[in-house]
Design a protein that fits this description.
The complex is a heterodimer of chains A (318) and B (328). By secondary structure, chain A is an all-alpha fold. Chain A is 71% helix and 0% strand. Chain A has one domain. The chains are: A mainly alpha (318), B mainly alpha (328). At the A-B interface, helix 2, helix 3 and helix 7 of A face helix 2, helix 3, helix 7, helix 8 and helix 9 of B.
Chain lengths: 318, 328
């Protein structure tokens, strides 16, 4: 009896299915995804609490302003979109979401390398491209699952909170926010997968993408827009305007296309209406292009790195 | 039989040689130095841009025949340029500590040498003391490199040179940074000596680092009512400082919870202490060093208490040698 060679689609499906199982069974992926989900809940609470506090400050400030004979400004709360309740999600996606995705991408490749199945798999007439696409599909599927659950929690929060004007634009905005967040997280999932298939030790396969993530999140925004490392964590930093002058013009032109953290923060903050985008040179289309191109380039790099993985030396050295 | 002091020194020496051989220390220290230099350079350039804007605005006012007296020039305090530098030590220093702690345990577990070492006439205390001592030397060497490069760059950028009092302030921050990074070393080391799978230990340590260094301060920061509205809520409402203080008295519980969340973070204690010592926080700018330390000593105590608590956990917990082989 001869074994039938699997089609590209069948290989992709089998690879995706087994990789999703790996992700679900892995305690670390579950831990980080759980932590991310906990932050989704905390973010919803923080959004509500902060809005209530600003509202209370406004109420307390009214008599002070009246006593001083000043004009009464509009309540800042009334001028914000219901979506801005979830402003902290921008930070949590950039931190926990990206880290959970890195680990997920790492695990879907590392599990195969550590279990020793790579030499067996690659000795069969298997389509390596299809197998790699299956791994990418698993990363996409798992991240989509996490973000759909997060989006449902946010939707429920908006429905429960009184006094919010929930138009169709708000719901579309929520979907757009999670679509953009998905693009950002998938990029880090692919980065984790590339390092897991390329590097010879597991420790370095985890450390190198974490270092790249640190550089993209905290160092590059400082070079291109003078946003300090801790200020980069505040979603309001999307409102900061980079200092004018030759240096920042050159750095933002040169590094802008690689600064996916800034592109994500700008896009997400614009969708959640935390920033008007006034004064910034970034555009929504430009930021979206940066994220899309980064994903395509990383997906291509992963397929190449997985196809060229040496089956005889597939186990990690540490 | 070799005395305990020699045993500790031998193990500490081996730690230093091992860490230098794996390039982990040089990779992360190099990354920290680059981040610190980038931060200093960018801060200096931003200040220069502010100065040029001031000069242009002043010239414009004078050309229009108006007085430029009320236009204040940008203040220049060299140590204030270290803000980003301190923040990078907070973030990347924590990673450096975790990686060294993980490596210190992983190198023995990976080679299955831990059980072998413990069959020798060597106490667990001596073994752990050597490990902690060697790695604390590595941490201090890595931080010393970063701080020396930072101080030289600061003197070169400012063009003023640093006064002995400035160097003393930088040294005090370096000492606090050593304990701060030491906390994360102990965390990584304890977890890698406890959790069955080594990569899981590394990731759990990263999850704790993320929660303590980035998320807890961020929650505290975004709960600050003045950070809820672009430009600040009080600025948007045109409320003066005395009235702000009066209004905020009604939010004492909220502020206590906010501060409590920040207090859980060793990064926030290190940041508050360092910003005060370096005069980055305006109210401490120009204050004598001894007075600043006296005022912010609680933050230093917090760092020392967390460090001591982790040392206590490490030394009192017996090692489970059958569990600590190469990952299962």
């Amino acid at each position: 009896m001869t074994s039938r060679q699997l089609t590209l689609l069948e290989t992709t499906w089998l690879s995706a299915r087994s990789s999703i199982r790996i992700g679900i069974k892995d305690n670390t992926v579950v831990l980080l995804a759980g932590l991310f989900f906990a932050m989704v809940l905390i973010s919803a609470y923080l959004g509500w609490s902060a809005t209530a506090t600003v509202n209370a400050i406004y109420t307390k400030a009214l008599p002070v302003l009246q006593a001083q004979g000043k004009a009464i400004p509009a309540n800042p709360v009334g001028e914000t979109s219901p979506l801005s309740l979830f402003r902290n999600m921008v930070t949590y996606v950039a931190l926990l979401g990206a880290l959970a995705s890195l680990v997920l991408g790492h695990q879907v490749v590392a599990a195969d390398r550590k279990s020793g199945v790579i030499p067996i798999l690659f000795s069969r007439p298997i389509n390596r491209t299809g197998f790699a696409i299956g791994k990418i599909s698993a990363i996409l599927f798992a991240i989509a699952g996490i973000l759909i659950a997060a989006g449902l929690v946010n939707a429920l929060t908006m429905l429960v909170l009184p006094g919010l004007s929930l138009t169709s634009a708000v719901w579309i905005g929520l979907i757009k926010f999670y679509a953009v967040s998905g693009l950002y997280m998938v990029a880090f999932g692919l980065l984790g997968a590339i390092c897991a298939s390329t590097l010879s030790t597991e420790s370095m396969a985890l450390l190198i993408p974490v270092t790249i993530w640190l550089a993209l999140t905290f160092i590059v925004p400082q070079i291109t827009a003078n946003i300090g490392p801790m200020a980069a964590l505040n979603p309001q930093s999307a409102n900061l305007i980079a200092p004018t002058g030759g240096f920042f013009a050159v750095t933002s032109t040169l590094l802008g296309p690689f600064s996916i953290a800034e592109s994500y923060r700008y896009l997400a903050s614009s969708i959640l209406e935390i920033t008007s985008g006034a004064g910034t040179t970034t555009t929504a289309l430009g930021s979206l292009t940066v994220l899309a191109v980064a994903n395509l380039a990383l997906a291509g790099a992963f397929i190449f790195s997985f196809k060229t993985l040496d089956a005889c030396r597939s186990d990690y050295r540490d | 039989m070799i005395n305990m002091q020699t045993q500790i020194t031998t193990i500490a020496g081996k730690e230093v040689r091992d860490a230098l051989r794996t390039h982990l220390l040089s990779l992360l220290t190099g990354f920290l130095v680059i981040a610190a230099l980038v931060s200093l350079t960018v801060s200096a350039i931003a200040l220069h841009v502010d100065y040029l804007t001031y000069v242009e605005s002043r010239a414009l006012l004078i050309s229009l025949g108006k007085s430029a007296a009320e236009l204040a020039p940008p203040a220049f305090f060299p140590l204030k340029l270290l803000r980003g530098f301190v923040e990078h030590v907070e973030i990347i220093g924590g990673v450096l500590g975790i990686v060294l702690g993980y490596r210190a345990a992983a190198v023995e577990r990976g080679h299955s040498t831990l059980a072998l070492i413990m069959t020798r006439p060597l106490t667990q205390t001596a073994f752990l003391s050597g490990k902690v001592g060697g790695n604390m030397m590595l941490i201090m060497a890595g931080l010393a490199t970063t701080f020396v490069v930072g101080a030289i760059a600061l003197a070169a950028i400012s063009g003023l040179g640093l006064a002995p009092s400035d160097l003393a302030r930088i040294f005090v921050v370096f000492t606090a940074a050593s304990f701060y990074v030491g906390i994360f070393f102990l965390l990584g080391f304890i977890l890698a000596l406890t959790i069955k799978k080594l990569p899981t230990a590394l990731l759990v340590a990263f999850a704790i680092w993320l929660s303590l260094v980035l998320i807890a301060p961020q929650i505290g920061d975004t709960m600050d009512p003045d950070n809820q509205v672009a430009g600040g809520v009080f600025h948007a409402l045109d409320i003066a400082k005395p009235q702000q203080t009066e209004i905020l008295k009604s939010f004492k519980t909220y502020e206590t919870i906010r501060d409590g969340i920040e207090q859980t973070s060793p990064a926030k204690h290190f940041e508050r202490f360092s910003f005060a010592v370096l005069g980055i926080k305006d109210i401490y700018n120009g204050q004598p060093l001894a007075e600043v330390i006296r005022d912010r000593v609680t933050d230093l105590w917090w760092l020392l208490a967390i460090f001591a608590a982790l040392v206590f956990v490490l030394f009192l917990r017996p090692l489970n040698l059958t569990r600590l082989t190469k990952e299962q």
